[in-house]
Amino acid sequence: MTFKVWNDNFSVNNPTMDADHQKMTELIGHLHELVTLQQNRSLINLLLNELVQHAESHFCREEQFLREIDSSDLEIQSIQHELYLEKVRECRACIERGEYSKARQIIPFLNNWFLYHVETVDMKYKQ
């Protein structure tokens, strides 16, 4: 499977958010490689932990930004962010059970959801 990778078309003209978005796509791509190769579970779990931490930090910054601009999208964005994190946790649970094929099915969702979210939702706030 080919993943979309970060490029300037995904830029929201906010260096912090752009760096977060780029890092997220890199983490997801690396996760895909490790799971496809069925690498050591502990290595994959370390990466999944990093992905969760990065996503939580990014979503927190994004939601703070939405509060600052008094966006009506804050509640729906918060719900969407939590659903995304649930999918990452689901992927981690699959890895912990040794269900690499199930994890491989979740990873494209993570990539596609994230980039779709950037392209359609986050672009509304392009500065």
UniProtKB/TrEMBL annotation:
GO terms for molecular function: metal ion binding. Keywords: Iron, Metal-binding. The keyword Plastid does not apply. It comes from the Bacteria. InterPro entries: Hemerythrin, Hemerythrin-like, Hemerythrin-like_sf, Hemerythrin_metal-bd. Pfam families: Hemerythrin. Residues 16-125 form the Hemerythrin-like domain. PANTHER family: BACTERIOHEMERYTHRIN. Belongs to the hemerythrin family. This is Hemerythrin-like metal-binding domain protein. It comes from Propionispora hippei DSM 15287. The lineage of its organism: Bacteria, Bacillati, Bacillota, Negativicutes, Selenomonadales.
